[in-house]
Design a protein that fits this description.
By secondary structure, this protein is of the alpha/beta class. It has a single domain, classed as Nitrilase/N-carbamoyl-D-aminoacid amidohydrolase (4-Layer Sandwich), CATH 3.60.110. The protein is built from five helices and 13 strands. A seven-stranded mixed β-sheet has the order 5-4-3-2-1-12-13. It has a six-stranded mixed β-sheet with strand order 6-7-8-9-10-11, covered by helices on one side. Helix 5 links the parallel strand 8 and strand 9. It is globular, with a radius of gyration of 16 Å. The relative contact order is 0.18.
C-alpha cells in the first residue's frame, strides 16, 4: 500500500511579526517536504502568536499576499498546510480565531467555534469549516478549545474523518487532561489524532510543546520531547504507523 504522512509543526512565533513567522513557516514546509509530509498543521494563531490584543490589528483574509506566498510554496511542494491567524472575512467586521488550509484547491478558511474565557473580548465565535481529503483520507480540523467539546470530535467522526487534527496552545497544566481527551477520541472513534502545540512562549503563556500523534485506537505514535521548534511526523504504511521528530533550524 502507499504510505501517508502527516505532521505537526511545533513552531515558535514572534509576537505580531507576520513576516518573520512566514519565514519560519517556510522552513517547516521545506523540512516537511524532505520527509514526505502530505498534511502539515501549525499551532493556533501561528502566524501572529497568541496575541489576543493584536487580533483586530493583524486580522487577515484569504486574499492576503502573505498567505498566497505560503500557498505557492505549499503547492510547489505538494503539501496541504494549515496555518493559524486572526481572520476577518472581506464582508464582515467580526474577527475570528482562524485557520487557513493552503493546498491544491487554494485557500480554505476555518473559524474557531468554542472560545476560551477572555477570547470573546476580541474574537467572535465561528462556525468551523470544511474537511479536506488527501490521498483518500478525510481530515477534520479543531482549533484548540474546539476539541474540549466531545461533540466536535463526534461530529468529525460521523462525517467520515479518518484524521482529527488539533491546532492548539496547551500549557503543562492542561497537557495531561487535553492529551487524554485526544487519545480518547482516537480510541472511541477509531481515527488518527494529531495535535500541534506551540514551541515557545506566546501571549504570556508558556506552552508545553510535546506535540503528538495517536493512531486509530489511541496508541501514541510519536511526541516531541518538550518545547522547541520541531517537526513531528507520523507515516501510515502496511504495518501501521511510525513516527519521527526532527529539529528545525532557521533558514
Amino acid at each position: 500500500m502507499d504510505t501517508f504522512t502527516i505532521a505537526a509543526a511545533q513552531s515558535t512565533s514572534k509576537a505580531g511579526d507576520i513576516e518573520t513567522n512566514v519565514a519560519r513557516h517556510l522552513a517547516f514546509l521545506h523540512t516537511a517536504a524532505e520527509h514526505g509530509v502530505k498534511y502539515l498543521v501549525f499551532p493556533e494563531l501561528s502566524l501572529t502568536g497568541y496575541e489576543r490584543q493584536l487580533g483586530r490589528q493583524l486580522a487577515m483574509g484569504r486574499q492576503d499576499q502573505r498567505l498566497h506566498r505560503l500557498l505557492a510554496e505549499a503547492q510547489r511542494l505538494g503539501i496541504t498546510v494549515v496555518v493559524g491567524a486572526p481572520l476577518r472575512h472581506e464582508d464582515q467586521s467580526d474577527v475570528f480565531i482562524g485557520a487557513f488550509t493552503l493546498g491544491v484547491h487554494g485557500i480554505q478558511a476555518h473559524t474557531k467555534q468554542h472560545l476560551h474565557p477572555g477570547e470573546d473580548l476580541v474574537f467572535a465565535a465561528g462556525n468551523g469549516g470544511p474537511e479536506v481529503i488527501i490521498d483518500g483520507n478525510s481530515i477534520a480540523l479543531a482549533i484548540c478549545a474546539d476539541f474540549s467539546h466531545s461533540s466536535h470530535a463526534a461530529s468529525a467522526a460521523d462525517s467520515g474523518a479518518r484524521v482529527y487534527a488539533a491546532s492548539a496552545l496547551i500549557t503543562d497544566n492542561g497537557y495531561q487532561n487535553d492529551t487524554g481527551l485526544l487519545a480518547g477520541y482516537a480510541t472511541k472513534h477509531n481515527m488518527a489524532v494529531l495535535m500541534a502545540n506551540h514551541g515557545g512562549i506566546t501571549g504570556g503563556w508558556e506552552p508545553a510543546g510535546r506535540s503528538a500523534i495517536w493512531a486509530e485506537g489511541g496508541e501514541l505514535v510519536v511526541a516531541a520531547p518538550g518545547p522547541g521548534d520541531m517537526l513531528v511526523t507520523a507515516t501510515k504504511g502496511a504495518n501501521g504507523w511510525t513516527g519521527t521528530v526532527v529539529a528545525i533550524r532557521a533558514e
